[in-house]
Amino acid sequence: MADKEPRLPFRWDLSRAEQLGTLPVDTRPEEIPELTECAARVLARSADGDLYFVGRSPDSLHDLLSGVLADTPHLSRLHRLPLSLHGTDSRDPTPDERAQLRADLTASGITPAGLAARDRPLVLVDLVHEGTTFGNLHRELRAWIDEERAAWNVIRRRLRYLGVTARRHTSPNTWRWQQHAEWTRELPASSVGNVSVFGPLWRYLGERQARVEPPFRRARWSDPGVAVPRHDDRTREALSEALSLRDHGLTRRARAQVHRVLTAEPAFRDPWLRTLAHTLRSSGGSR
């Protein structure tokens, strides 16, 4: 089978606002404080790795952090992986679909050889209910790694999964998605983690946030039309919300909140996180 060309969905660059044209008025969501706290905790639990936000649900976290980290070296650690692999209908892709998936992963900087050669972790972030997206993606990565005969014993220490979950009452009987996913047993316990949030924020991320692009399900993986910019009203409204989140991340208020959250996290004992927190406190922000 011939090599596939990558076909990742087009998304406007929020750092080049002059190219976005006239957008609707600021549509900043009311969940901004909770969203900022969640983004900070995701950052703190990234183990100084590269963050890949999977699908569309974590887009708001990515956009806000792109503002928070705008003038720091950590900005280059943020990546979007817009693939939709949710549910049982995303399992067992055809050979053609699998080839396209691998081409898109390669274009996003994810390959078996690349994972084995990494100096720092690659952290996949997604909104999680039962963890089917992570499970489907992990199976595809694992099969690819085995086919390429890449060093799984090395990769398993580089690959991490971080779920944003709805907060529940804690007890010995509390249902936790990773305890029911057999594939997580292939990884060190520290490689699968969570950031829990209250229900309203979880529902905002999963249901109510404006979407800049349609879901990129397997039926669209080979569609050349996904690379074409969209200019409809719904896209413009979603861009306005995304830009407002990035702009909020640039503010002193947002960076001060992120700094407070980082210093309260257990990982703050690690030098990389102390350095990043100091950088954010020193950078000030736009207003």
Topology:
Elements (H helix, E strand, L loop, with lengths): L31 H13 L5 E5 L4 H10 L9 E4 L13 H13 L4 H6 L4 E6 L4 H17 L3 H4 L3 E8 L25 E6 L1 H10 L24 H17 L2 H13 L6 H13 L4
Parallel strand pairs: 1-2, 1-3, 3-4, 4-5
Helix pairs in contact: 1-2, 1-9, 2-8, 9-10
Quick take:
With 287 residues, the chain is an alpha/beta fold. The protein has helices at residues 32-44, 59-68, 95-107, 112-117, 132-148, 152-155, 199-208, 233-249, 252-264, 271-283; strands spanning 50-54, 78-81, 122-127, 159-166, 192-197.
Task: Please explain how this structure is put together.
This protein is α/β, with parallel strands linked by helices and 287 residues long. It has one domain. Helices cover 40% and strands 10% of the residues. It contains ten helices and five strands, in the order αβαβααβααββαααα. The chain has a five-stranded parallel β-sheet. β1, α2 and β2 form a beta-alpha-beta unit. α1 crosses α9, α2 crosses α8 and α9 runs antiparallel to α10. It is globular. It starts with 31 loop residues before the first helix and ends with a helix. The model has no long low-confidence stretch (mean pLDDT 90).
Our Rg estimate from Cα atoms comes to 19 Å
Q: Runs with pLDDT <50, length 5+?
A: none
**Major sheet characteristics:** 5 strands, parallel
User: Beta-sheet strand percentage?
Assistant: 5-15%
- Please give the number of β-strands: 5
Mean pLDDT: 90
If strands are numbered along the chain, what order do they take across the biggest sheet? 2-1-3-4-5
Distance separating the two termini: 54 Å
